[in-house]
């Protein structure tokens, strides 16, 4: 795909959806002494979201329950949170009430359960360390791995497409 084609897809985006583990985080799970899950988020990804969030809403479609992630996502003002949905198309269907056509949705995922949703949206993205199955259907494969700037690259593309 050419840069012009990628920018054209990006210019149509009215909703950005992200997976959490392997996209907003590096995919590793840390557990505290009381069994609480801890996750690490990259500030570069967060700043990209801050720069873009006034122009397009953000949401999450994640296969794992969201308690550990919810505080960070609320801090970043994510508007749509779908957790505990391994079937990403079913999670996406929970957002159908928004009325945004598939062609105007961007989604970043990293694993095989993300492939059906990646194949459905107008702008499919994945981190550099995504599974080959996800990379095969993505319009954008970032240079950065998940949890280490991949989301920032997607945000930067969307900002460029808007002339910002």
UniProtKB/TrEMBL annotation:
Alphabetical UniProt keywords: Hydrolase, Magnesium, Metal-binding
Cofactor(s) needed for function: Mg(2+)
Organism: Anaeromyxobacter dehalogenans (strain ATCC BAA-258 / DSM 21875 / 2CP-1)
SUPFAM superfamilies per record: HAD-like
Record flagged with keyword Hydrolase: yes
Signal peptide bounds: none
Top-rank taxon, per record: Bacteria
Quaternary context: Homotetramer.
Protein name per UniProt: 3-deoxy-D-manno-octulosonate 8-phosphate phosphatase, YrbI family
Binding residues annotated for substrate, in chain numbering: 21
